[in-house]
Amino acid sequence: MEYLFDETLISTEIQDLLPSNLKLRPLAKDDFDKGIFSCLEQLSIIGDVSQQKFVERFEELKKAYGYYIIVIEDLDQEKIVGLGTLFVEMKFLRNFGKAGHIEDIVVHVSQRRMNLGKRIIEQLIHLGKELGCYKIILNCNEKNIPFYEKCGLTLKDVQMTLYNEVRKEDLGVENFAPPKTDQ
Q1: Domains in the chain, CATH or no CATH each
Q2: Mean of all residue pLDDT scores within the chain
Q3: From residue 155, how far is each of 92, 140, 171 by CA, in Å?
Q4: How far from chain centre, in Å, is Cα 133?
Q5: Is the pTM of this model over 0.85?
Q6: CA distance 158 to 168
Q7: pLDDT in tens, 77-93
Q8: Cα 4 from chain centre
Q9: Which residues pair with 90 in a beta bridge?
């Protein structure tokens, strides 16, 4: 199986906290048919995704520095039931330091309330430490702040966002509406 990154970076201590039928591992090149998009569509618009596009993106991520996507697979069902991403940003600041950005945390609705989200966050924080990140950043909705605080993160600063004009044809979806802003 071809993984996005070296599986030895996965914490055995965190894996041991999961039920025996769940495996925490890097994203694999053959995960297309394992339900990854049924998880991701619970976060946002997916668009037109084919296996070829998935493999092309996987290969781009593998060649680029700093992308660490982890999944939790239900081995009994051979389905992905949760995932998250750590992106490592190379900086000039802090003596050429690295900052980790956590993104796209999701647990399939059928698997919630089992601490899987917490395990994903713990693993991504573990990866950040192993990779030498001096800080880990995560942006979230206000309603999710208590969950992330339980995972050891603290509220700091404010996020600013600008959504560029995107044509629905570019996303491969019907009835696209950009996210609403507060103003």
Answers
A1: 7-171 (3.40.630.30)
A2: 90
A3: 24, 10, 32
A4: 17
A5: yes
A6: 29
A7: 999 999 999 999 999 99
A8: 13
A9: 98
Q: Tell me the one-letter amino acid at 148.
A: Y
Q: How many CB atoms lie within 10 A of CB 21?
A: 10
Q: pLDDT digit string (tens) for 125-153?
A: 999 999 999 999 999 888 999 999 999 99
CB atoms inside a 10 Å sphere around CB 124: 25
Q: What spatial distance separates the first Cα and last Cα of the chain, rounded to whole Å? A: 47
CA 117 to chain centre: 10
Residue written as tokens 């995560």?
Answer: 138
Q: Are 10 and 32 in contact (CB under 8 A)?
A: no
**What is the token pair recorded at 97?**
């330091």
Look at the chain and count its residues: 183
Q: Which two tokens stand for residue 74?
A: 């239900």
Q: What is the pLDDT of residue 170?
A: 64
